[in-house]
Amino acid sequence: MANIGLNFWLTLWNWDPSIVIGTALIVGLYFYAIGPVRKRHQFAPASKGQIFAFMLGMVLMFLALVSPLDELGDSYLFSAHMVQHLFLTTAGPPLLLIGTPEWFIKPVVRNKLIFKTARFLTYPAVAFVLFNADFFLWHAPSLYDATLENQAIHILEHLTFIIFGLLNWWPIFSPSKDLPRLSIGGQILYLFLSGMPVVLLGAGLTFASPLYAPYIAAPRVWGISAATDQQLGGLIMWVPGNIIFIIIMSALFLRWMQKKEREQAAQERELYEAEDAADLPV
Question: pTM for the complete prediction?
Answer without folding.
Answer: 0.90
